[in-house]
Amino acid sequence: MTDEAALPFLAAELPAPSPAQQEVLARIARQRGRLRQERLAREEEALLEAQAQSLPPEPGAPFAARLAYFARQHPVAVSALAGGLLAALGPARMLRWAGWLLPIALRRLGR
């Protein structure tokens, strides 16, 4: 993506592209435009998702949605709770429960 005005010596040395080369250059330009549009769409979708996650859930929202919102807003409290459970129940039992509960929770959250 060089500008001919910025690099006049380069434009003088390059021959004009052949019709086949022009087709390739046009295809490259179309692909770059398509990739740019896809990137912008992904960025916009990520922004909308971040905005939606920052909003508190509705009062009648499912318990999992309210719990996920609470966990995002209070990570230290959730970490302390998890640490307390780990100390009280022991690591083997916690791993057993997590191995059973995590797949169910992830399926319900839609990930």
Low-confidence stretches: none
| Integer tally of domains | 2
Average of the residue pLDDT scores: 84
Radius of gyration: 27 Å
Largest sheet, strands/sense/barrel: none
Structural class: mainly alpha
Distance between the termini: 39 Å
String of helices and strands: HHHHH
Give the CA-based shape. Answer: elongated
Secondary structure topology:
Layout (H helix, E strand, L loop, with lengths): L7 H6 L5 H36 L8 H11 L1 H15 L1 H19 L2
Brief overview, please?
With 111 residues, the protein is an all-alpha fold. It has helices at residues 8-13, 19-54, 63-73, 75-89, 91-109.
Overview of the structural elements:
α4 crosses α5. The mean pLDDT is 84. 0% of the residues are buried. The chain folds into two domains: 40 residues; 54 residues, no CATH class. The chain is mainly α and 111 residues long.
